[in-house]
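Worked problem 6 (solution included).
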Amino acid sequence: MRQNENAGADADKARKQPPLKPPLKPPLKPPLKLSLRQKLALKLNGCVYLRHERRPGWTGSLPIYLVKCGRHGLFEDYKHGFKQYFMCPKCQEEMFAGRERMREK
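Solution. The predicted structure is:
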């Protein structure tokens, strides 16, 4: 009988937890193996071409790069905007969290 009571309490806790927010971008895993040429390009340039990728909602395919963030390490991204820049998803989350904190004050 106690097992049933504990199961009910656990179910209540699970229902009361707020839903998790979806990440800004789908999590992308960097490849496990890079060639010597790719490792050298990543070290010198901070980014290296991996492949072309087509995602839902895109009209064409875009080149995907492995990029090194100075604060968070490696991530995959495509070049954004006219200036062709990369955006680290973790840096972007920190930036938006900081803006939210400033709005609350």
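Discussion: Strands lie at 47-53, 62-69, 73-77.
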